Every structure is written in C-alpha cells, then in structure tokens.
Amino acid sequence: MTPLYPFPAITGQEHAKKALQCTLVDDDIRTILIMGDTGTAKSTLARSVGTLVFSKKVLTVPQNITYDRLLGNLELESAVSTGRARLAPGILEQGNCQILYADNINLMDEGIVTTMLNTSETGQIILEREGFSHRARTRFILIATMDPAEGELTSSQMDHFDLCVRLDPIEDSGLRADVVRKHLRFEQSPDEFIREYEPRILALKKTLDAARERLPYVSIPDGHADLISSLCLELVVAGQRGDLAVARAAKALAALDCRDSVEFDDIKLASLFALEHRRRDIPENPPATPPQNKPEPKDQDQKSETGSSYRNTRPDQTPDLQPERQEQKDPDKKKTLPSPLAEQVFGIGSPFEVIRYLNEKSRRATHKQKSGRRSRIISTDASGHYCSFCLPKKNRHDIAIDATLRAAAPYQQSRERNGLAISVKKMDLREKIREKKTAHTILFLVDASGSMGTRKRMVAVKGAILSLLTDAYQKRDRIGLMIFRGTDARLVLPPTRSPDLAVRMLRTLPTGGMTPLIQGIAEAYGLLTRGRYAAAGENKSIVILTDGRVNVSMNTKSPYNELADMTRSIAGTGIRFVVVDTEVGFPCLGRARALAGDLEASYFRLEDLNSRRLTGTVQELIYTTR
Amino acid sequence: MTGENPVYPFSAIVGQEDMKDALLANVVYPSIGGVLIRGEKGTAKSTTVRAVADLLPERDVVKGCMFRCGVSDSRNLCSSCREKIATSGKPETELVRMRVVELPLCATEDRVVGTMDIEHAITRGVKKFEPGVLAMANGNILYVDEVNLLDDHIVDLLLDAAAMGINFVEREGISYSHPARFLLVGTMNPEEGDLRPQLLDRFGLVVDVEGEKDPVRRSDVVKRRLEFERDPVAFCKKFESEQQAVRDRIIRAKESVSGIKADDLLINTAIKISLVLGVDGHRSDLTLVKTALAFAALDGQNDVKREQVIKAAGLSLPHRLRRRPFEESRMDFGTIRALIEECYGSS
C-alpha cells in the first residue's frame, strides 16, 4: 500500500493536530472537519492520522460512493445460490470502531453527506431500501476535508461536525522550506523517512493512550462550565451541540496535557475548535446603520459600511479599490460634476459586506439560509451522478445493473437459467436515476446610461455585481453581462462559466448616454429564449440593475407605455426576473418597483444587497419572492 | 512496433519546446503532477503527447493484470498482484509500452471509476469489478481533451483518484480499490471558459501553446507532416537516431534525478517566489523544485542551475498567480526572472 505521511512530521498546523488528537482521545468526539485552501496539506494531514492508530483502520469514503455501498445492500452471491436475502454491510457499518475519511466532503452528494453525519451522531444505521429493513449500531470517527472556496456545506451539516479546524497558509519561509524538504525526502525514500519518525509516533501514541485512560477522571470546574455556556450564548450558537463539543474537547485537551482539571486555556482552544464553525453572528462587528432610511445620506451610509466591511477582507484586496474610495470620501473636491451624458468609466465599488462572508477565514458563510445548497435536477441523459433507481419508463437504456441484479437474485432458485448463473426477466429491470447540478444561466442586464454616472451610482452597482458574481462562481453558474446605454443594448460577455472574464469586463465598463431600457430587456430576453442559450432544462434568470427610468422608445409610443406593454407580455414565460433598484435621491419615482411588478420579478433595492438582510447569493435573489 | 500504426516521432516535432519540456519533466519526475496545455486547436498537442508515450521504454509488468502493475513497484500493486507475489514469489511478466488513454467529454461516472461486470454477474452469479478509465490509465498517460468542458463531478472523481494514486470504488454494489497512477495531461481552449482555480492548482505545469509564427518553420511543419503521411515507416526510420538520443536522455535522467540534491538555494528561491507572488499552499514550492530537478537531470547535470530554475518557474507558476477567483494579480514573468536572478546571480 502507499505509505502514509507520519503525523508528527507535519510542519506547523498545531491547532489542527491538537484537534485531531482530541478525536482520538475521546470516543464521543466523532466528527472533525479540516478546512483549508488548495494545497495546504489538508488531505495529507487527515490521512496521516492513520499512522497514529494501530487498532483502527482508515476507510476511504470516495466521491463516487452510492447509497447501497454507504448503508448496505443485498448480497448478490448468497441470494443467487441460496435464494435467501442477506445483507452486505455498507461502509458505515464496516467502519464500526474504525476511522472514515472523506476528502472534499463539500463536493459529495448532499444526501450522502447528511446520512453520514446523522449516522455518526445517532450511532445507528437505519436502512429501508429495496425490501430491506435493517438496523445496526455503529460508531466511527469521521475525518473530512474541504476547500471552502469550492463550495459550502449547509449550516446544519456544519453544526453536525463536533470540531472544525482551519489550516492556515504557512507564511514563514523557514517552515515552508521545511515542508518542501520533508516532502521530497518522504517521496524519495518513504521507508527511511517513516523509520526516522517512529520514535515520535510511539511517544505520541503513548501520550494518547495515557490521555484516554485519564479522560474519565478529568473534570470541569463549575466556574469553567458556566463559562462554556455563556460563551456559547454570547456567540449565538444555536443548539446544544456546541456546548457539548466544547466541554468534550476541553476535557480531552486537559487529558492530553496530563491534567485532571480543565483550565481556562483548554476552554479557549476548545471553543476555537468547536464554536467557530457554529457561530451565527459577529458580535465584535456591530451592524452598520440600517439602510432603510432617508435616501439623502445614502452615500454616507455607503462609506461607513465600506469601512466595516474592509476590516475583515484580505488586505490584498484593497489596493484596487483604494482610489475609488478616496474619491468617495472627498466628494466636495470634485466641484464640477461631469455631465450625465459624457462617457466615464467607474471603478468597482466596495465589494460590499457580503463579500466578507466569502473571504473571511471563519466559516460564517455557512449560516446563510439557502447557500451551500446547489440546485440539482434529474438528468435526462446518461450524464450526472447515479443517485437512485426506478422501474423503467419507455425507451430508456440506462440500466441500473446492480439494482436489476438485486431484484432478480431472490428468484433464481425457481427460474429456468439456461446455463447462466442469473436469469434476468423484464420485471427485474431497474433504471438509473441520475442527478446533476443545474446549470443556471444568469444574465446581468445593467443600466450604463448617464444617470448611473451621477453620484457614482455605478461604483455601487459594480460592487453589487461583483458580490453576486462571486457567489455565482461558487455555484458554477453561467454568467453573462449585458449593458444598455445610448441607443441599444450590447452583450459585453456572452454567458460563460469564467467569471474572471466578467470581472475584467466590469472593470472597463463605461457609462454615459441615454437609457434604452426597453431595448435592453428585449435583447436580454431574446438571447435567453431564442439564441444559443435557449437550451431546455436550464434555469435562466435575468437580473436587471436599473433605476427604472427609460428615455428611448422603439416605436412611437411613450417609452413608459411601451415598457409596460412589453414587460407584461414576457412576464411569467419561464425566465425569472430580478429587478435591483438603483434609484437614489429625490424625487423618488419608484419606477423600478413598477417595472418589477410588470415583470412579476423579485424586487430589491441596491442597498438591500449592502445590508445584513441579504447575504448576496444569487439564489437568494432569484428565489426570494416579495 | 510492428502491426501498429507508426506514431509521429517526438524528435520530428517542430518547435513547441515548452510543451515537450513539460512532458519530459513529468516523465522524469512523475509526482510533478501533470500538464495542462492551453491553446487553440491544431497546435500539435495530441501529436506531442502521443509521441512522448511512444518514446518511452517498455515496462515490465505482471502478465494479465488489468492495471498493468509494475513488477518492481511493490508499493503500488493491485490486490490480486499482491496476492500473486505473496503466494508464488515471482509472477509471470510481460513488456508493455506506455499508452495514451483518452477520457472523452461524454464519459459517464461509472465508466470513469469502474462498475460491476454485468457479464460476469449473469454467467457466474458473482460480483466482479469491471475496470473503468482510471484503471486503464494506471501507468499510462490520461489525456483529457478540453478538460474545462468536462462535467464538474467527473473532474472531481478524476482528481480524487489522482490525489491519492488509488481509485477507491464504493458504488453499485462494488467495493474495490486499485492503483491509479497516471500522467494527467489536459488541454483547453481558454476562450471557452477557465478552470476553477482549485483545479488549475492540481495541474503541476501549464503550457501555453500557439501556432508556429515563423514562416520557414511553419512550412517545415507541413512538409514533415506530409512526408510522414506518405511513408510513415521511412519517416520514422529517418528520425530513429534522434529518437534514440532523446530516449537515452530520458533514461539517464530518470536514473540520475534522485541523486540530485534540492539545495537550500533552490528551495529558498522557490519559497521566496511563492511568498512574493502571494501563492498559498505548498504545491507551487514543490512543483517548482521538482521541475527544476527534472530539468537538471535531463540536462545531465549534478546540480540545479539558474537556467533550469527559470525554465521551471515559467511552467510551474503562471496558473498559480491568482489566489482568489476575482483578483487580477497577473504578474509578468519579468518579476519572477528578476527574483531568480537575485538569488542565483544574473548571467
């Protein structure tokens, strides 16, 4: 077998290593999630746990796992030869008293993930499939890894993880060199390398064994116990799982340190392991002024929120936006406002508070209501992930062989087999149900007319689009960008899965000219209903960022009448519309709201995106109805 | 080679030095982790990859093994070969040449990871694993044309196996694992959308190819191709001595690469570049170091020189410069070169 990298040889990442040791000390700490960016040795660390346990095996739960292997299914061989239905245990049952390892758990089938986590918590396998009813006890440690940039887990899935640690990139060049050297040595002569670490592995094992023995005698002083509950309350952790996990981890830490009593530092570290991923809110970062107030001081609001949102974004994001913010801060210095019809290019505004959710190191992002849930559809061709099976419909050839054979197996004793081991009859046939992620196509239709240039409205709009793009990227949606200004609408970016392109376009997007909103909507609608993006079965949405003003008509009618006629005719024809109202200042005409009404669209104010009421997911925009 | 269609000889390929270098480096140092070739159609991508496979010496593998387990490679044996060797000592062997296994875009997940062998189940009543593309790819080159258009979940499966070198199968009633070590070569046309940065990072090296610009060399490409098509055997013969020279170079490099020490200067340079460019993770450090070692071995040297570091940096860094989906921090190569020269001294 491929040799495992020795656990003590992992450079740095002391927190993660401690947390993993806790799971080996306390059997009641059963699930641990290791998060980190790509290439931070998540998997190496997770697998290296295998070098610390002699009595346990590490079973890999691969991406391709199906339910029958997870929970158990009919044992084909005995069914064929004896006609009796026996159960072949699945990996959750085989994993009893062992360690299960799931790499990139956020990319796995959602149902599978939930089943694993629930089973781990209840310790009971409940199988009700294909005529089988089966219950079994099982207890395993689940070690999972994920790269949050690739997608998220739902908040309830996150909550199921007892502990969660984040691997931080190693910035120290000495440590980094150490990583490279060790890795090269391990690759070149693994046996020698492992031998070198044997004494340290044995010592660590001794420590772990001693800690396991000590654990039942470790107690938490009363004051500290209160501290845990008040900590959980303060961090607004929902449910009791957090409290329990902190207490358990703290005890394990004390035991590892050869103490019988939990100390303050244990609790501090334990709450980092157990609470960080369960947090609901950010107490140290009070919400900025609620934006639902008079329109005039909007720019002020913007500023204050910009400031707060930067506190937590990565510093390297700022330089790009610096000049723009400078300008915003000193609006008076610009005495001469540019004429609305002149062409200007605005930078991208603050990527809004929502961006913070996405870039931040801790995992608050997972508490968004609808995020993390990718929309899935049943695939109509043979592509996609095999998730279940059914009795076949007409003219389908995607046979679920395993299910078919299982269906046929019990009848083999009584069937004429013609020299074959299994005779399959038509009634046995089962067909695969495959699931795949829906390809969302989202077209951003942006008003780039002169009116957007006033008050630097475009800066905020670009910021909002950027926030939404980030989310769309994580969901692997297809994104297009169309702008309208002057006399027509222009497709700046045909729907693509490369949001980098979209951002590049966004950066150089000019504003100025008239407002041909009607042409814009017509073009966008046409593109998604007739053009090459009209493919059936896809979810299509148009997100319109506009103040609802229009001053170019296509025929002789008044632009507003024409707009109303057109929008009413295309409302409810299969494409979802979202109107993001960019209107600001007096007089407040509410034209965008009217437009949203005509289009039967969801309606948001641009400020909503910049507030805590929305978390900036496109899904949320599209599926929230008001 | 008799009976097979002759493959266009590696040494007859005009230009495309980066692509050739990247592939050879991977052959010499397999854990570099594959090559992603970005560029338009018709830039000899597939020809070059096939030519590399054809160039490599034959390997001694366990006869009849569906994963072609290498006899000398005791760590990466499939379960049946391990059993065979444990019970009977030395198994029967055969010589095989490296192949290029293609993963088509329409591949379904059961064909990629493998599934239950229907025929075996029906005739014998016993479950058996039917190997998929990942099994065929073991010990070979896995060539994914237009990898950016491949379904996300297929790519995830691919990388899952590639990361561990083992394909774990737990599906459709089958529980099985087998070695899956392959040289991953992907191609893509960047105009059709980018790969996720996480995927990009998994590819060791990246090569940007474009058509030959020089008119004389361009006509060379056509002339040679036509000559090859007219009489492939004669054409191959013409290049045989050059082919042998490259082959010898590869064999020597494979032998010598483990003897070349990654000195502090090399490691520190790699880390300095990563830190200056703000690349998270250790893959960039490791890939740069390994690629430089491979180039030194290919050049027949005992230690890594500045030129090899520069060449390795040119292939291992371009796709790692961007850290977050939307940060445009494309740094020009001049900065990297300057850094290397600062460490190694300029010429």
List the keywords.
heterodimer, A: 626 residues, alpha/beta, Helicase, Ruva Protein, domain 3, Rossmann fold, 4 domains, six-stranded mixed sheet, five-stranded parallel sheet, B: 347 residues, 2 domains
Task: Give a written overview of the molecule.
The complex is a heterodimer of chains A (626) and B (347). Chain A is α/β, with parallel strands linked by helices. Chain A folds into four domains: 1-168, 3-Layer(aba) Sandwich (Rossmann fold), CATH 3.40.50.300; 218-280, Helicase, Ruva Protein, domain 3; 298-332 and 341-373 and 438-623, 3-Layer(aba) Sandwich (Rossmann fold); 378-437, no CATH class. Helices cover 39% and strands 16% of the residues of chain A. In chain A, the strands form six sheets. Chain A has a six-stranded mixed β-sheet, with helices on both faces. Chain B is of the alpha/beta class. Chain B is globular, with a radius of gyration of 21 Å. Chain B has helices at residues 17-28, 45-55, 79-88, 109-113, 118-124, 133-137, 152-164, 197-202, 215-230, 232-238, 240-256, 264-277, 283-298, 306-316, 333-344; strands spanning 35-38, 59-62, 93-96, 100-102, 115-116, 129-130, 141-144, 166-171, 174-179, 183-188, 205-208. Mean pLDDT of chain B is 85; it is low at 323-329. Classes of the chains: A alpha/beta (626), B alpha/beta (347). Chains A and B meet through α3, α4, α8, α16 and α17 of A and α4, β5, α5, α7 and β8 of B.
- Helix share bin of chain B: 40-55%
Annotated CATH topology of the largest domain in chain A: Rossmann fold
Sheet-strand content of chain B, in percent, reads 5-15%
Q: Which CATH architecture of the largest domain in chain B is right?
A: 3-Layer(aba) Sandwich
What string gives the helices and strands of chain B in order? HEHEHEEHEHEHEHEEEHEHHHHHHH
**Low-confidence runs of chain B (pLDDT<50, min 5 residues)?**
323-329
Helix content percent band of chain A: 25-40%
Strand and helix layout:
The complex is a heterodimer of chains A (626) and B (347).
Chain A: H1 14-25, E1 31-35, H2 42-48, E2 58-60, H3 67-71, E3 72-74, H4 76-82, E4 87-89, H5 91-94, E5 99-102, H6 110-122, E6 124-129, E7 132-137, E8 141-146, H7 155-160, E9 163-166, H8 173-188, H9 190-214, H10 222-234, H11 241-256, H12 264-275, H13 298-310, H14 322-329, E10 344-345, H15 352-359, E11 376-378, E12 385-390, H16 401-408, E13 431-437, E14 440-447, H17 457-474, E15 478-485, E16 488-496, H18 499-507, E17 510-511, H19 517-529, E18 539-546, H20 559-570, E19 576-581, H21 591-599, E20 602-605, H22 606-609, H23 618-623
Parallel strand pairs in A: 1-8, 1-9, 2-5, 5-8, 14-15, 14-18, 18-19, 19-20
Antiparallel strand pairs in A: 3-4, 6-7, 10-17, 11-13, 12-13, 15-16
Helix pairs in contact in A: 1-11, 8-9, 9-11, 10-11, 10-12, 11-12, 13-15, 15-17, 17-18, 19-20
Chain B: H1 17-28, E1 35-38, H2 45-55, E2 59-62, H3 79-88, E3 93-96, E4 100-102, H4 109-113, E5 115-116, H5 118-124, E6 129-130, H6 133-137, E7 141-144, H7 152-164, E8 166-171, E9 174-179, E10 183-188, H8 197-202, E11 205-208, H9 215-230, H10 232-238, H11 240-256, H12 264-277, H13 283-298, H14 306-316, H15 333-344
Parallel strand pairs in B: 1-10, 1-11, 4-7, 7-10
Antiparallel strand pairs in B: 2-3, 5-6, 8-9
